[in-house]
Amino acid sequence: MARTNSSRRWYLFDYGNVISTPPTREDWEVLAEATGVPSLQESTSPYWQHRYAYDAGALTSDEYWSLVCGERTGPARAAWLDVLDGNQWSHPNLDTLDVLEDLDAQGEHLALLSNMPAAMVSQLGDAAWARLFEHRFFSSSLGLVKPSAAIFEHVLTALSVEPGLVTFVDDAPANIATARSLGIDARLFDASLDLSRMLAREPAGPPRSAQAAGVAAGMTVTAPGVGPSRQE
C-alpha cells in the first residue's frame, strides 16, 4: 500500500518502561505469590520465556499462565493473574505523560506501538493516557511483535507516512535498531534523561555495524529469551 500522507509527522511511543514505569519489587512479589513461582522478573523465568508468544496472541491467557505456573490454570485464575499483571505495568511515568500532553497541546500527531497481550490491552485501554493517541498498535491484535521489521512496516503503512517523518521512542535497543534500519528517527528512552530535550536533538543515524543491522532485521533475536522490557 502506498504511503500518501508523507508531509505529516508522527511521534510513535512504546508503552512499558516509557509511558509506564517498571514493576516494583512488591509487584513482582505479589505475582510470584499468586503463581507460586519465584523470581518472575528474571529473564530466564517462565514469565519471560513464554511472553513473546503471549504478546503475539499465539497463546490464550489460560495457556500462558499454565506455562508460567507449571500446572493447568483455569479461566478464573488466569483472569486474576492477568489483572495482577496489568496492575504491575500500570504505574505511570509522570514525566513522560507531561511530554505527551505537551505534544498533544501543540497539535502533534501521536501513535502507540506496544508489545502487549490482549488481556492487558482490555484492562488498560480506557486509561486517560490512551486518549492522547490517534492510533494504537498492539502486538496481540496484529500477530506481530517488536523487534520484527514487519510490525514497523505495518505501522508506517497504516499511518501513510514515510519513515523519516516518524520519531519513535522505545527503551529496548533491539527495537531502536530495527526502526533505524528502516529509516525511522528512533530515540532510545532513558528515564534519567529529559525526554523533551531528547526529542529536540537531531535524528540519530541507522545502525553502523553489520551486527546491528542483523539485530534490526530480527536475525539474532530469539522469541523466548528477550528480557524484561517485553511490555513495550
Describe the structure.
- The longest helix has 14 residues, at 75-88.
- The two termini are 26 Å apart.
- The radius of gyration is 17 Å and the shape is globular.
- The protein is α/β, with parallel strands linked by helices.
- It is built from twelve helices and five strands.
- It has helices spanning 25-35, 46-49, 51-55, 61-69, 75-88, 94-105, 118-124, 139-142, 149-159, 173-181, 195-200, 210-216; strands at residues 10-13, 109-114, 135-138, 166-170, 185-188.
- The chain has a five-stranded parallel beta sheet with strand order 3-2-1-4-5, with helices on both faces.
Number of helices: 12
Principal-axis shape: globular
- Strands of the widest sheet, in order across it, are 3-2-1-4-5
Record field, number of beta strands:
5
Mean pLDDT: 89
Element order: H for helix, E for strand: EHHHHHHEHEHHEHEHH
Biggest beta sheet attributes: 5 strands, parallel
Helix proportion: 40-55%
Low-confidence stretches: 207-229
Structural class: alpha/beta
Classify the beta-strand content into a percent band.
Answer: 5-15%
Compute the separation of the termini in Å. 26 Å
Structure characteristics:
12 helices; globular; 232 residues
SSE inventory with pairings:
Elements lengths: L9 E4 L11 H11 L10 H4 L1 H5 L5 H9 L5 H14 L5 H12 L3 E6 L3 H7 L10 E4 H4 L6 H11 L6 E5 L2 H9 L3 E4 L6 H6 L9 H7 L16
Parallel strand pairs: 1-2, 1-4, 2-3, 4-5
Helix pairs in contact: 1-5, 4-5, 5-7, 10-12
Concise description?
Helix content is 43%, strand content 10%. The protein has 232 residues and is an alpha/beta fold.
